[in-house]
Amino acid sequence: MPDMGTKTVDETGAETGAETTTDEEKTGTTDLTKTDEATKTEADAEADVDTDADDLGEELEAVEAEGPTGVGQGAGAVVSAALGVVSLTGGWVSTVAAARETLIGQLGTSSTASVATQVKEVYGDAWETTAMWGGIFALVALIVGAAVLVRPAFGTPGKPQAVWIKSVAWGGVSLGVIGLLLAVLKYTDVLLGLPSAS
């Protein structure tokens, strides 16, 4: 009987030891598997980064091969349209120039001058100055817009100009033509001439 008890204990101990060894082996194997997976994940991430860098390099080469992007033409079109609007609505330059001309007219006209002369010197010259500056802005808008429209003829052959650039440039040209026409009509007193002082 004592021998059986001892044997049972020994067998149990042996079995427990075997189980412990098996668990340790399993744990070691699991740790190795996790380490391998982490190594693979890092390698995959590095491969993805290399692939992304290669793709980015190819895209940059493609952009360089395409040539100019048309940023300058777009900026020119916007400037043309803005100058066209200024030619019609007036800007601070024309306002200051007109006020200066009014002051010069007031200083240069004697109080004994006729009403027609005073109106001409004080108001007429100032309005003509405003019309002149509006015409200058309109002319610049017209020239810049036309330059943007003809630029593709001297650029990369076969590369079309963006539609929005053409539209804005044509808008600038149109506003320039209208502003120039109105400026000439006002400067010559055909449009909004001086009132009669008689």
Secondary structure layout:
Elements: H1 2-66, H2 71-89, H3 92-108, H4 115-150, H5 163-187
Order of H and E elements: HHHHH
| Helix content range | over 70%
SS summary, helix count:
5
Form type = elongated
Q: Which structural class do you get from the secondary structure elements?
A: mainly alpha
Overview of this protein structure:
- The protein is mostly helical and 198 residues long.
- The chain folds into 2 domains: 66 residues; 118 residues.
- Helices cover 82% and strands 0% of the residues.
- The termini are far apart.
- About 5% of the residues have low confidence.
Features of this protein?
198 residues; mainly alpha; 2 domains; 5 helices; elongated
Compact overview of the structure:
This protein has 198 residues and is mostly helical. The chain has five helices and no strands. It starts with a helix and ends in an 11-residue tail after the last helix.
